[in-house]
Design brief:
The protein has about 250 residues and is mainly β. The protein folds into 2 domains: about 130 residues, Jelly Rolls, CATH 2.60.120; about 80 residues. The chain is built from 1 helix and 16 strands.
C-alpha cells in the first residue's frame, strides 16, 4: 500500500498550516483549545466544564480519576488519557484504567492538566473528575467523553502564537450581556488581561489576529467570563501554533 505523501514533495503547493498539522514542519506544533461553561452568572468564572475559577497545582502531583456514576462498578475498565505538563513543564500524558471502585491514579505527576478524554471503546456512565487533594483539575463530563477547558500552558522550550479567538454566549433571558477576557500569566507573574470583550445575549465575538499574540514558555493562558444576569452558557476556543525556541 502506498504511503500518503505531501504534494509538496512533487514541487506543488500545500498550505503551510496543513503541513504543520501533518507534522511536516520541524519544531512547530498546533493547538486548538475549546471550552464550555454551562452556568455563568454575576461572578467571574473560567470557561471550563467544572465551573468556578480554575485552581492550578502548586507543584507536580499525581492525578486521580473518579467516576460520579451512581454505580461506580459500571465504569470498571473505562480508559482515560490525561495530557499536561510535568514538573519541568515538559509535555506528558498517561492513560489510566478505572478499577471496580470507579477510580484510578496516575504514576506520572502533573504540574498542569489541560486535557483528558476517553481513550478506549467503553464510555463512562457518569462524570469523570480528575483531582488531587480534593481539588478538581479536569472533568470529563457525561456524554462529552472529553474535557472542555478553554485554557492551556505553554510548554518549556516553546513560544506560543495565538492567532484566533472565538467567544459565544447563549441564554433564555433577553437583555443580558457577557464580559469575556483572555488572560495570561507569565511564569512567576500574575494574570494580565490580553483582550476584553462584551457581547449581548446569544452573541458571538470572533477575532482573527493578523499579528498573533506571543506567549513565553510556562505562560498560563485562560478565558474567563461573567454575566449581567444568570444561567448563561458561554463557549470559547482559540488556535495556537507553538514553536520550539532556538538554542543560543
Amino acid at each position: 500500500m502506498a504511503i500518503p505523501s505531501s504534494i509538496t514533495r512533487f514541487g506543488k503547493h500545500e498550505p503551510w498550516h496543513l503541513q504543520v498539522s501533518r507534522e511536516q514542519i520541524e519544531n512547530h506544533k498546533r493547538l486548538f483549545k475549546f471550552g464550555f461553561n454551562p452556568d455563568i452568572n454575576g461572578t467571574e468564572e473560567t470557561v471550563w466544564d467544572a465551573g468556578g475559577i480554575y485552581a492550578y497545582p502548586g507543584a507536580a502531583v499525581a492525578m486521580t480519576a473518579t467516576t460520579d456514576a451512581g454505580t461506580p462498578a459500571n465504569d470498571n475498565g473505562v480508559k482515560i488519557l490525561i495530557q499536561g505538563l510535568d514538573a519541568n513543564y515538559n509535555e506528558v500524558s498517561q492513560e489510566i484504567t478505572l478499577a471496580g471502585s470507579g477510580t484510578a491514579t496516575t504514576t506520572q505527576t502533573f504540574i498542569r492538566v489541560y486535557r483528558a478524554y476517553v481513550s478506549g471503546s467503553q464510555a463512562p456512565t457518569g462524570n469523570i473528575n480528575i483531582t488531587n487533594g480534593g481539588t478538581t483539575y479536569a472533568r470529563v463530563s457525561l456524554g462529552e467523553n472529553q474535557t472542555l477547558m478553554s485554557m492551556w500552558t505553554v510548554p518549556a522550550g516553546y513560544t506560543a502564537y495565538l492567532s484566533h479567538l472565538n467567544i459565544a454566549s447563549g441564554t433564555t433571558t433577553i437583555n443580558q450581556y457577557i464580559i469575556v477576557k483572555l488572560i495570561a500569566r507569565e511564569f512567576g507573574g500574575v494574570f494580565r488581561t490580553q483582550l476584553k470583550q462584551s457581547i449581548g445575549s446569544g452573541g458571538v465575538a470572533d477575532f482573527i489576529i493578523e499579528y498573533p499574540l506571543s506567549f513565553l514558555e510556562k505562560t498560563d493562558i485562560e478565558v474567563r467570563a461573567l454575566s449581567s444576569g444568570a444561567n448563561n452558557l458561554v463557549s470559547s476556543d482559540f488556535t495556537i501554533i507553538y514553536i520550539k525556541n532556538t538554542s543560543a
